[in-house]
Amino acid sequence: MSGDVVNSKKNAGYYAADLVMDGNIVGLGTGSTVFYSMERLSERIKSEGLCIKGIPTSIQTAIRARSLGIPLTTLDDNPKIDIAIDGADEVDPDFNLIKGRGAAQTRERCVADSAEKFIVVVDAGKLTRKLSAVVPVEVIPFALTHLCEKISDMGGLAAVREGVRKDGPVITDNGCIEVDCDFGDIDDPECLEMKINNIPGVVSCGIFTEFKEKIVVIVGNESGIEIL
Ligand code: 5RP
Questions:
Q1: In the chain, which end has fewer C-beta atoms inside a 10 angstrom radius, N or C?
Q2: Selection from 56, 23, 22 nearest residue 38 by Cα
Q3: What are 41-53's pLDDT values in tens digits?
Q4: Superfamily of segment(s) 135-206
Q5: pTM of the prediction?
Q6: Structural element, H or E, at residue 214
Q7: Sheet harboring 202-205: ordered strands across?
Q8: Which among 135, 108, 116, 117 has a CA at the least distance from the CA of 34?
Q9: Domain residue spans in the chain?
Q10: Which member of 108, 138, 178, 193 is catalytic?
């Protein structure tokens, strides 16, 4: 990652963390940008005595939050979240998102859905006129071949995501398989999201179109942020 991108992510992440208020239940997304939000939340807990509870969207986020001293809770114990902070892989002008590079999109969707405010933190490189990144899809192992055939019928190209320093597929935190599906330019994200999520065996895909009403996108740059 270049220095510019690191600073941009940090500026976006820190700004979002400063929106969190005392007593909030905070959805903690997954990824490098949210990591900066957690770093700033940790600072605020130590310096201001900020009192919050985080709900992590992945094992990785839970481990990081614990190491930063952020108290955690669960969605079962706190089904209403005040503010969720999460990253994205692409954001279009209508606030449609592609998420799931970290294979955490299912829990991220649950947390976004339960949140009153959904703060998306990105660097400017994530903004696009039209979504076209690969669409991550989490599928139960039983339905893997079925999913790949359905994606092909829909004009997409499905590739099982391979582990790094682990042979074979990426197994998600939910015990499922992550499949990256390439559709090229996505003309109708809402329709594609619905079609993929309706394939039997799919847990959740990485297209998020349903949170427009409550999304605030914070775009970090080298010197600060812009709010969309
Ligand atoms: C994980 C995600 C991430 O939020 C998304 O990939 C952005 O990550 P980063 O902030 O590292 O660029 O969806 O499943």
A1: N
A2: 56
A3: 999 999 999 999 9
A4: ACT domain (3.30.70.260)
A5: 0.96
A6: none
A7: 157-160, 177-182, 135-139, 202-205
A8: 108
A9: 3-128+210-220, 135-206
A10: 108
